[in-house]
Design brief:
Blueprint: H1 3-6, H2 18-29, E1 43-47, H3 62-77, H4 87-104, H5 119-126, H6 148-163, H7 173-184, E2 192-194, E3 197-199, H8 201-209, E4 216-220, E5 229-231, E6 244-246, H9 249-261, E7 266-270, E8 277-278, E9 283-284, H10 296-300, H11 314-322, E10 330-339, E11 345-350, E12 364-368, H12 369-375, E13 376-382, H13 388-394
Parallel strand pairs: 4-6, 9-12
Antiparallel strand pairs: 1-10, 2-3, 4-13, 5-6, 7-10, 7-13, 8-9, 10-11, 11-12
Helix pairs in contact: 4-5, 4-7, 6-7
Length: 396
Amino acid sequence: MNYKSMLLAGSLLITLGTQAQVDLINKVKDNGAEQAEEKFAFETIIDLEATPVKNQARSGTCWSYATTSFVESEMIRMGKEAVDLSEMFTVRQVYLDKAEKYVRLHGHLNFAQGGALPDVLYVIKKYGAVPQEVYEGLNYGTEANNHGELEAVLKAMLDQVIKNKNGELTPSWRKAFEATLDAYLGPYPEEFTYKGKQYTPRSFADEVVGIDPDEYVQITSFTHHPFYREAMIQVPDNWTWATAYNVPLEEMQAIVDRGLEAGYTVGWATDVSEKGFSYKNGLAIVPAKKYKDMSKEERTAMFDGPKKEMHVDQEARQAAYDNYRTQDDHGMQITGKVKDQEGTEYYIVKNSWGEKEYGPRPGYVYVSVPFFRYKTISVLIHEDALSKGVKKKLDI
């Protein structure tokens, strides 16, 4: 699938906007509130190279951090020197284009901080990319992202434009909106110098980053759409109307495993609201026993060593999605695999909540295979990571 077809209809989104994301992150950090006594012994199976862990801070921009890190790893895979790319440049352009669609749809679109894994590719293709040193996006007096006020101001402005008391839109609203983005995040970097050479965002993306957005595909697995076709998930924040290929659960997992074995990292859209996702323990699991049915002792011991996990099949993950237990609330990057002392496999997942000394690998989460099968919304991967058989089924 090329990137044009990804933008035709529907989306698989990682919607973490407004204060809700900050609240969710704080809630998740309390899962397994105390770091359990370490009773896991992990052996590395695959460990692909990734750039240093960042911190999205008080912003709903995990989608930008996840796919930007993914792109940086793609540069490494391609033999290039990885560049610390600016997440906020992408965020700025997404705010701008999302605003235009929000106005065109008379406000019938979710205008918030959230976004989707392919949004970074969308910006690279349409606008380009810039290094972090050129565009930090911190013009509002803090040392870390905090988009609560920015989002409120932007949305209030757009809502007044939509009310349209003048009878028709003025040609100035977009200029005013962009000026607000300039004030908070910084003006669009028309030209800049990097390592002694002049670039525009377009030339930097083409000459330095060097990826082709059309070569990446998004994969999902749900039964309310036909398999082996492009499909959408109905979620409020579907602002680009991007599509993904829908395949059976076993095949989605196999695509990720095969990709990792071949040296491809994976963008991952998921749900982290479950009690089995513990930031402080650096683990994500799906206990066989439901949390509400556990005793106090069982809850306390959830992360103190390998436990039996839930059997997750296509029906179970579909039910979780249909009943709002699985929602599009976080994006991260899968960079490898480990196994514990009992031979159980976990995915190595790079997060964007900073590199604090939690869990087996600071800044990362080890995600069990059942958790991945249960909570995945979609994955983003280079099309060359797909087997010839899968490509044939998907007509790629």
